Automatic annotation (TrEMBL):
InterPro entries: IF-2B-related (IPR000649), IF-M1Pi (IPR005251), IF_2B-like_C (IPR042529), Initiation_fac_2B_a/b/d (IPR011559), M1Pi_N (IPR027363), NagB/RpiA_transferase-like (IPR037171). Its EC number is 5.3.1.23. It comes from Desulfolithobacter dissulfuricans. Pathway: Amino-acid biosynthesis; L-methionine biosynthesis via salvage pathway; L-methionine from S-methyl-5-thio-alpha-D-ribose 1-phosphate: step 1/6. Belongs to the EIF-2B alpha/beta/delta subunits family. MtnA subfamily. The gene is mtnA. The keyword Transferase does not apply. The active site is at D244. It holds the Pfam family IF-2B. This is Methylthioribose-1-phosphate isomerase.
Amino acid sequence: MKVGDRHYHSIWLADDGWGVEIIDQTRLPHRFEVVRLETLADACRAISDMLVRGAPLIGATAAYGFCLGLRRDSSDQALLQIGEQLVRCRPTAVNLRWAVERMRLVLAPLPAETRVEAAYREAGRICGEDVATNEAIGRHGVELIRRIWEEKEKKTPVNILTHCNAGWLATVDWGTALAPVYRAVQEGIAVHVWVDETRPRNQGAHLTAWELAAHGIDHHLIVDNAGGHLMQHGMVDICIVGTDRTTASGDVCNKIGTYLKALAARDNNIPFYVALPGSTIDWTLTDGREIPIEERDQDEILRVWGREEGGDLTRVSIAPEQTPAANPAFDVTPAGLVTGLITERGICPASREGLAGLYPEEAGA
């Protein structure tokens, strides 16, 4: 997407052809900073410290992490150790494991001296496929928005509620949940987005709102607990969120608080859709309760970043010093609460049968 007058992907090769550059998402929305990754440790830190976020982008970063690690040592042992180190960075997003396994599968049969060049080629393919995948998600998902707009006789914008960030910054380009929104704007469909702040990391406030503002899309930031109120008063037409892992039966794991939005949507008869690439489906799981839920540092809850009036960034405490915090980063929304899944292959019910219809080669159908 565009930042100023330049089109950016969220990850790209540096001009020297081997270094990797990313946008430091921990500095947004107040500062736009590009960070260069030169080692496997750099890539691991970018993933674990959330300089990059979103399942597809985490996977792309892991792929380039392989490239950087192999530059130092391309032996069989190094190939195994690089993958193990990357997988440990974040446990919930299945794209991380998917990217690691794909890189291993391509690189393991090759002679050590050819692996670096092959790794860069495969990482580039992963990134290119992600862009095409997300563009397709937008193409399919926009039809849902168009239908609502036509039902409203094109007189008022379609009000879309989203949670966390599933936009361009969560992928290589386009995004998942926001891809249909960007496509709708391209096609002249009037939209308005309710942006959940998404505590405790505030991905909605920091990233989604920043993306929408940069794109000139009408939106309002709301506190996480306002969604139900808006739904009760007819101010939400559709919910679209992303997912970090989806089971073969259609349960979806997304940022903490997604489950509550799905419950409110069901109570108010509002469609609740989840946008995802096929790489986010974990075909080994059928029950979302089996998904490992990342427990992050309590400081994410107890302290917040902000910009002072003078422009300086600062971090402040918001709770008593003696108060501990529990910080589960994700929750699971059962398939029964999901109206449908928007994928690069089309829209399907959130069920084993629905997913198998789109991905028969994966489901064993």
